[in-house]
# Entry
Amino acid sequence: MEPVVLTPLRPSRTHLSPGRRRGSDVDDRIREFVAEEYGKVVAAVGLVCGSLPTAEDAVQEALARAWEREARGADIRSLGAWVTTVAMNLARSQMRRWRCERRARDRLLPLARVAPDAPSASGEAHAVREALLALPRRQREVTVLRYYLGFDVAEISATLAMRNGTVKSLLSRAREALAIALADEDQEPDRA
# Structure
């Protein structure tokens, strides 16, 4: 499969500062890289991340970033090394994202089989579910991880990429909101 290389619009020469490279210089350097090194870099990144399509995406994104940097006047001494480094970082990030998503799906798979379709055991369970759904997303996430899956603050922090203090604050706000929501439903006004 041949790589798809998009040719970006060239900046107008009247808008270039003296330190900026001319668009054609940048384009030529990128074309030279694609002709000589692109295949090797994609193969190398593919070996590291284990996925050729992910490697191609990462290298192409790195090339786009290199073009933008050089068009703004930044000097990339070794384009091959720079693109390889950026592409590997992008591929690692993508693989981490996929692993996190897979772990989350694996954790939630038993919940999906039971929770959404199962009739609630009592009105209380339904009330708790509705109160959870009413919480803001981040408060709902930390609450479910803490009280349903039993994660401690450090595990929640690592899972959601938040600081421990943020997790504690979100849990506190969620507990307050749940107490109010559940107290309102438990206490119906007395009508005499």
